[in-house]
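Sequence, structure tokens reproduced for absentees:
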Amino acid sequence: MHSETYPRATLVSGETPLTHLPSLSEDLGIDLFIKRDDVAGSPLGGNKARQLEFYLGAARAQGADTILITGAVQSNFVRTAAYAAASLGMKSVVQLEERVPERDGIYHTSGNVLLLRMLGAEIMHYPEGEDEAGADAALRARAEALRSEGRVPYVIPLGLENPPLGALGYVRAGREIVASGQAFDVVVVASGSGATHTGLLTGLRAAGSTARVIGSCVRRPKAQQEARIRRVLELLSELTEDTRAVAAEDVQIWDGALAPGYGQVGEAASEAMAMMAGREGILLDPVYTAKSFAAIPALCRAGEIAKGARVLFVHTGGLAALFGYQSDLEGGLPVLG
């Protein structure tokens, strides 16, 4: 089976821009491009819109009237799901997990949290940030309660035991990149839940691209993330034959910008944000895109990305989270020479 055989709710109309970054290309000695998935889907959208097309397609096929999803307090996935549900005439129940320690009131009320309230989502809270099974169980318990009220809920799960329907959105995106006619030596993307990374790798390979695909860790260290990506690929193989084009050595992980941890702003992420904003006028968020873009200058300096290489950075969005990190950023980003 292929991604086109699954029900899909159209949230991303048309292709997202794929453009050259001239200033950073000159600075880094490479030919650098950006895939602007930060403009996919809803306002302040991002990669989650592509994933949600397949989850909400399945939900509509089952006659669902309510979407349930779990994620971090400033989760872009959760906020985008609430937007998508509202746009399709559905209700949303969102569960916010405490994944980032010692955050202030701004983090818990601004950014994506504010948007959730504006979208009319029902908000639940879960005290643990590293308990995927428990978070999913809490959602399913709420779904059962909704069924008893006559509602038709659909749970978008988090744990690895579930079919990664969202990855199908990035199988499509990988094919979209190849169909653009642009060929790349290296593609860099954020690697978190694994759906975007595995889907993109699968789509690129299935469409004939031999580009080295590097997943930059945003939540777990390299060894843990590599194991997760391999597991998601196994699960994705049950949904689509496209994974047959992926070899074991195609799974490549970099975690040089992960510190000090998920949802926390480190030096590498701060420098990446300053570099992209100051040289290209494009904003990155501190949780995903700053930590993923940071891989490119670091690997260029290390000689792991060759001079003159054609490199694609996949901007997965998430800019609403910027406002939740006001306390971290109000001192300003580093001035880079």
